[in-house]
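Q: Hi! Curious about what Nitroreductase looks like structurally. Here's the sequence.
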Amino acid sequence: MAGKTKIINGYGHIAYEGDHFTEDEMITKSMEYYNSLDSRRSVRHFSNSMIPIEVIENIIKAAGTAPSGAHKQPWKFCAVSNSELKSKIREAAEKEEQENYNSRMSERWLKDLAPLGTDTNKEFLEIAPWLIIVFKEVYEIDDAGEKQNNYYVNESVGIACGMLISAIHNAGLVTLTHTPSPMNFLSEILNRPKNERAFLLLPVGYAAENAFVPDIARKKLEEISDFYKK
Ligand code: IYR
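A: Let's find out. The predicted structure is below.
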């Protein structure tokens, strides 16, 4: 059955139909959601077990529900399970990381990273069954063949990546945000069009049975918030 409709600025709008919960339900649901997200960890040790492609499709669809500047949806999610491509990506990423760790990164940066146990070895790029490489669409080509810049591209794609990460976690899988810098090699290896720039690389899979994560804590509510009440 068609819902109510309305014309605003000459464009059709449909009645918003969202969930409505009691206050108790809201408190319970928000707490459960927080607890679930709080159990997420960036994991660097993956199992090579395959996962169904439907799961990858669903988590990409979840990311694609993100809000974006002028609803341009300026993102493309490339899902790679092809071993040859994964090997090429690992090789190129490690080459950049060797430069990063050995000369581009400052002493302070290396010291800040030490607790996380990262290094130039990116074997997870070959072991994880899927790599999702997120590209941002900096511009689109209009009907007249002209370049038209998209709006708030970094914000939009960043939000979509957050939703992707939470969808991966919700499926019981793990990931980590990998940003080999510079990332141009991803456009070349995956033969991406000129309006796209690599934004983030996320290996996706099950955690390895013997996976360890850093013993670090999150900031408390008091540290991450300020409330302005009367
Ligand atoms: N890109 C490098 C270095 C690195 C940088 C930051 I900031 C991190 O939080 C983690 C790693 C790498 O992936 O190893």
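A: A fun detail: The longest helix spans residues 83-104.
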